[in-house]
DUF1989 domain-containing protein
Amino acid sequence: MKPKAAHPAPTDALQRKSVKPVVCYPTDTLPRPNISAYQALRGDLELIETVVIPPREARTWEVPAGHFCRMLCTEGPQVGDLNLFNLHDLSERFYSGKTRALNGTHVGVGDQLFSSFPYLRPIATITYDTLDWYGFDEFGGSVHDVIGTRCDPYTHNLLSHGGQYHHCCHSNLTRALAQKTGLTLPEAEPHVHDVLNVFMCTGFTRDTGQYFMKASPVRPGDYLEFFAEIDLLGCMSACPGGDCSSEHSSDTAACYPMIVEIYRPREAPAGWKSPAVNGYDRSHGA
Ligand SMILES: [Zn+2]
């Protein structure tokens, strides 16, 4: 339990609390992709690779720049924890925090996933989402969040007073990345980063601001699709939480495989260019 406030509210507390919020990064200054140019290609895509992610495991795949990638729900409701890297440089990776600051807590069609400093450029653009009907529910929950981190054995150990569990998304991603790159597990682990929670339904409780999850509304056949802005290495874990209706970090939840499909379009989107790395000169005022 958190302690109660130790200080009485000042006389103008109501006035101070009633100040209207200002959106930190108004989306009218954020360059937005021409989403209709991407979507115009969706009718003529060639499937070039299919990857099956077993439950409580992770797998990697490559998406060349200019290709589409679909992450599908197959046999039952299942959440996926997604990491993305520049295929040629693991130090450029998906930056969940800045993607959240720029797009909001949950991402959908037209949103772009940004990479880490000093690159900070869009590396993927979300082009299709069969769960776009969900919006926000009465609890403030929505799907595909960039607020959670990934389930991990360290938090599990902390909260369970010493428990050891080896199939948290963090460990699954670490094993899969090590296998793909030839790095050892200790070398691969620091590259694993905060995820895009594909299909996961989450929010913050209105009264206490706590991170919550609830059963994902995803059903077999649903998918989330993105366009690769640069050559990408994807890595996704089929979370041991299954649909994340109850708990993580155990083998009790029902878990299902997930499928990833890579598609090649017939041509590039009209006017599209793979984005350059960020233009800041990195002199930091020195
Ligand atoms: Zn997980």
User: Anything to note?
Assistant: Residues 111 and 126 are 6 Å apart (CA to CA). Residues 49-265 form one domain.
